[in-house]
Amino acid sequence: MTSYVAASEQCFKEQFLGQSDFQAKPLSVGGTEYRLYYYETMVDSSLVQDFILKPLLARPSDPVREVVSILDYTETEHMEEAFEAIVHGKTVLHREGESRYYLLGADLKKGRSINIPTNERILRGSNEAFIENIDTNLNLMRKLIPSTDLVVNSYSLGRLSKTKVAVMYIKSVANLCFLEELDRRLQSIDIDYLDAPGFLDELVRETKFSLFPQLLITERTDRARSYLMEGKIVVVTSGSPDSIVLPVTFWSFFQSPDDYHISWLLGSFYRLLRLVCFLLTIGLPAFYVSVSSYNPQLLPINFANTLQSSLKYVTFPPIFETIAMMLLLEILREATVRLASPVGQAIGVVGGIVVGTVVVQSNLASNTMVIVAAMTGLASFIIPSYEMSSAVRLLSYPAVLLSSFLGLFGLVIFFMMIVIYLCQMSMMGQPYFTPPFALSEFKDTLIRSPIWNLRQRPDQTAPRNRMRLRHPRSWKK
């Protein structure tokens, strides 16, 4: 048997050849030979010392299962499983006279602490955000939803990356058809390296070339919990602080958890304001091109005279100055995001003021165009979803081009094309853009009704249990 242990050790060394942090440690306890295989950069040496080596030295003749005091304990007779356990940070123990391998979880736990969300501003609600450690993220959700109805299904995706993916849902509420379809799509992924959430978004989305986001991404734990309670599915991955929510509709990208922590009147107002800003971001630059080039008669006479006087000495036609100012706004935004925070803020403020002043004084753009560009940028930033905000800004470019050829008629055609395109989109078999004309859907889409009036969960996800509130304000007789 000793030769078998030696042969096994030789296989391990050949598998991990050239890896300086791989260790194959021989250990002799009470006349019995052991081998420990592990990455020294991935294991916690104190755990190995206290919960593996010391118990073995104290009870050398007892079975390993009874000696080692580690919760993460499994056995296997397949060497490939032992190889995989090592690359995940486990310690593999091999005992003389046995053909099985003991896989012991003594991996080193390191990661940043739980912090506030950095990409989603919090006005009210929880200040805890997801981090890169998937176990910590699942721990946060288990604490927020202390119920056996919260189910977690785990996957390992990527032939080389072995990315851990966890799918969460409430079994008494979620639609089983969505779960089966998502499981089919995840199981069919065959890729070497999976980086989430971007890779998952493109691999499981319904429409491959759509500019509109089809999965909602959030790092807020309270937001993920609220969607779980509505019957949706939340996916978290190792190495990313963002979670994925699906299936979602067009209206989900204009909702914020803060809407439910303030008065329902204010929440409704802000939600309507976001939808208005969605239309402004797409249509305001195109409307400027239309009225300045084709349809100035649509404006009041005083405003039309002011607009024409501001364009009198401008060098370029309205279409060129509009696209140039929109591109300049994107450049300033990217510079602000990519640079360090103090420097980025300074460049954003100084660059906006200086560039805006220079282009007007140089007659490269009109005063009105600078105002339109500023309003367009601000309107896009009010949308809670970064993905939807970016998509809306890109949509403004074809709207401007179409308006430069057909005027206001071209802008109307473009909005009609967007509505038709949204109506034919779907996600997990559910319509992506359902007009909220039904009273049950209108309550929590265009506006935010009072909590006591939201008796049922949204119908878009078709949950098995739609009843959310049974006896609202029952204290009042």
Description of the structure:
By secondary structure, the protein is an alpha+beta fold. 46% of the residues lie in helices and 13% in strands. The chain contains 16 helices and twelve strands. It has helices at residues 2-15, 45-58, 64-67, 79-87, 134-144, 176-187, 198-204, 221-229, 264-293, 301-310, 318-338, 341-361, 367-381, 386-406, 408-424, 439-442; strands at residues 22-29, 32-39, 73-76, 91-95, 101-104, 150-157, 163-170, 216-218, 233-237, 243-246, 426-427, 430-431. Helix 11 (318-338) packs across helix 13, helix 13 packs antiparallel against helix 14 and helix 14 packs across helix 15 (408-424). The model has no long low-confidence stretch (mean pLDDT 83). Keywords: Membrane, Transmembrane, Transmembrane helix.
Please give the number of β-strands.
12
Count of discrete domains = 3
Structural class computed from helices and strand pairing: alpha+beta
Q: Tally the helices: what do you get?
A: 16
Strand content: 5-15%
Give the terminus-to-terminus CA distance. Answer: 81 Å
**Strand and helix order:** HEEHHEHEEHEEHHEHEEHHHHHHHEEH
Structural Rg: 29 Å
General form: elongated
Q: What's the rounded overall pLDDT mean? A: 83
The strands making up the biggest β-sheet line up spatially as 1-2-4-5-3
